Each structure stands twice: as C-alpha cells, then as structure tokens.
Amino acid sequence: MAAVDLATHPGHLARRLQQAHWLLWNTMVSEEITSPQFAVLNALVAQPGLDQRTVGERVGLDRSTIAEVITRLSRRGLLDKVRDPQDGRRSLLRPTEEGTRVHRKLTVRTARMNQVFLAPLSAEEQGLFFDLVQRVADAAEGLRNPAEPAAR
Amino acid sequence: MAAVDLATHPGHLARRLQQAHWLLWNTMVSEEITSPQFAVLNALVAQPGLDQRTVGERVGLDRSTIAEVITRLSRRGLLDKVRDPQDGRRSLLRPTEEGTRVHRKLTVRTARMNQVFLAPLSAEEQGLFFDLVQRVADAAEGLRNPAEPAAR
DNA sequence: TCGAATTAGTCAGGGCACTGAGTATTTCGG
DNA sequence: CCGAAATACTCAGTGCCCTGACTAATTCGA
C-alpha cells in the first residue's frame, strides 16, 4: 500500500549498477583479481613506493579495507610491503614483476569490458554518464568533510 | 607508466557512487536499517506473504544474501517468517506492525535523502541519470541469462 | 506410482566496506 | 628535551555480495 517504487531510488540503482559491473568483471576480466585489487595495483604501477594510506585515498578505500586488499595482493605475490626506514609508521608498497605483468594483462581485458559495459549507450550518452555519475558521487563525498571551516 | 586513469572506468565510478550513497543513507536515514534491508521491507509492505526467493528477485539480491538480510530483519522483530503449509520448501514473509511502522518512518527520510543525493543535478539531468544508469544496469544483467535460446 | 528433475533454502568460504578502539611511531610545543 | 598530539596501521565487529555444495520438499514423466 504505502510502498515506494525502488526504481525511483538512485541508491538502489547504484547498487544494481555495481552488481552488474561485478558480474561483467568476473566473466570478462578475472575471477581471481577483483576490481578494487586492480585499482590498487594500478595506483602502484603508476607510482611505486606509495604508503598504504595514500593508496587507499587514491582508489577510494578506507584504512581497514585497503589493509585487507593489500594483504590479499601480497599473499598472491603481486606486491611487496616493507616498513619505511625513514618513518616506522608507514608501509611502503610496490608491485612485484608478477604484479606488473598481471596489471598489464588485465588492463587490456578491462578496456574490452568497459566497452561492453557501456555499449548500450551512444558516445554522447557515455560522456554524459560519466559526467552525471561523477558529479553526484563527488558532491556526496564532499558532504563528508564539512568543507574547510569557513573562518580562518 | 602503463597505468590507466580510473576516472575513465565506469566500474570504479559505480563503486564510488554506491559508497557515496551509503554514506548519505547512514547519516540521513538510519544507522540501524540499511538500504537493502529497507528494500526488502518495502517489497513486503507492498505484498505481504511473499517467499524469500521472490523477494530477493524483486530487490536484486541472490539467495544467500537475501537469507542473511531476512535473518537480521527478523532478529530485529521487523518481519515474521513462517513455513508455507502448502509448500514446505518455502518461507513466507510478512512485516510485523513494528516493521510497517519503521518502513513508514524511513520512507519519509529516504525521500529527503534522495533529494540531497541528486541535488547536484538539474531536473532534466536527474531524469537522464536514471535513464542512463538503468539502461547500463539492465543490459549487463541481461547478459547473465543468455537470452532465450534462439531456436527453441 | 515411483524415481529423476526441479525448486527453496541453508551453509561454508572468499571478498568488499565501514566504525571504533587500540598500538606504535613521529612530530611539535613549551 | 620531554610529554601531548598527530599519524599510520592493526584488530574486532557488523553487514553486504557472490559461488558452489548440500538438504529437504515438490513436481513431473515414463
């Protein structure tokens, strides 16, 4: 009676979108390495020697989650983790050779997957898709840090 | 060197979108009841007496996940779960009074939250957002069931 | 009618995501 | 120089999400 239509709820849609992506990733890219794992690997290939916190920030994972992801990647031998001799709090990360190789392989597959994923949209629509989703996500993330204290 | 820009990856964007939504839900709707839990409650308010599988289908959760969500809702006393006397395989679900009350309360808050979430977009853009995201999600979900065997 | 599918649900296992509390290390102010 | 604050990370706890293997119940066909 008083129920709403979930199709009008952007959050529900967001969840479905991610599930859909997960499915496609799993079948077209890899069953071993997940999308967040690839994101971490990608960040380290771009800039080896980053510490955990920074990588997490770059790919959008909190301190706990990034720790888990790194543990798994390290267990698979795709990255090395060493204590920073300059600052004993940090762990410095860099991809292994195997990690670099895997990253290269998945990059190709990921590109193909993205095409399939966005295939239902025209080129202009794809641009729009990125723009709209990014603006919504950015705005909501912005609400987290209540925007620099106005005064001073 | 060979790293890609994650901003061009729809999957990464989808993940960020969902995280953003989760954050907003948590602060504006409820810290107790999650968005998937609300979706299940909503389906049962619309149609009490559904079985687990059907509810899962309606809200987009697989058999295992729907079972967990229902356990939690039931533990909180928001729904009743009874064996179908007509078909001993099924569990029939219906919201309790408390469940209905909670659903009503959250419906109001959810509407407010959705407005804030989509605030960065104009009215037309919001329509577009729904259309684009829905089409991408639908298409990917469609790939799961390889579309009715062409020749019978 | 009786045995082979089919169907609903459970269970174990792996992974993502967040919070709050706790530990170790560094930095900074007095 | 030394203690308080900040910083990086770990750990425990909760919840979502999926697969594959299993159990119980029903249905369907020979």
Task: Characterise this structure.
The structure is a homodimer of 152-residue chains. Chain A has 152 residues and is mainly alpha-helical. Helices cover 63% and strands 8% of the residues of chain A. Chain A is built from six helices and three strands; from the N terminus they run H-H-E-H-H-E-E-H-H. In chain A, strands 1-3-2 form a three-stranded antiparallel beta sheet. In chain A, a hairpin with a 7-residue loop joins strand 2 and strand 3. In chain A, helix 1 crosses helix 5 (97-118) and helix 2 (35-46) crosses helix 4. The longest helix of chain A has 22 residues, at 97-118. Chain A is globular. The termini of chain A are far apart. Residues 147-152 of chain A have low confidence and may be disordered. At the A-B interface, helix 1, helix 2, helix 5 and helix 6 of A face helix 1, helix 2, helix 5 and helix 6 of B. Chain A binds a DNA duplex (30 and 30 nucleotides) through residues 15, 18-19, 22-23, 26, 34, 36-37, 51-53, 61-65, 67-69, 72, 84, 87-91. Chains A, B: It comes from Streptomyces griseoviridis. Chains A, B: It holds the Pfam family MarR_2. Chains A, B: Residues 1-138 form the HTH marR-type domain.
Helix content estimate of chain A: 55-70%
Most extensive protein-chain contact, per-chain counts:
A-B, 62 and 62 residues
Query: What is the ordering of alpha helices and beta strands of chain A?
Result: HHEHHEEHH
Quaternary structure type: homodimer
| General form of chain A | globular
Main β-sheet description of chain A = 3 strands, antiparallel
Count of individual beta strands of chain A: 3
Mean pLDDT over the residues of chain A: 92
Helical segment tally of chain A?
6
Distance between the termini of chain A: 52 Å
Q: Poorly predicted ranges of chain A (pLDDT <50, ≥5 residues)?
A: 147-152
- In what order do the strands lie side by side in the largest sheet of chain A? 1-3-2
CA radius of gyration of chain A is: 19 Å
Specify the structural class of chain A: mainly alpha
β-strand percent of chain A reads 5-15%
GO molecular function (chains A, B): DNA-binding transcription factor activity
InterPro entries (chains A, B): HTH_MarR-typ, MarR/SlyA-like, WH-like_DNA-bd_sf, WH_DNA-bd_sf
Protein name (chains A, B): Transcriptional regulator
Pfam family, one (chains A, B): MarR_2
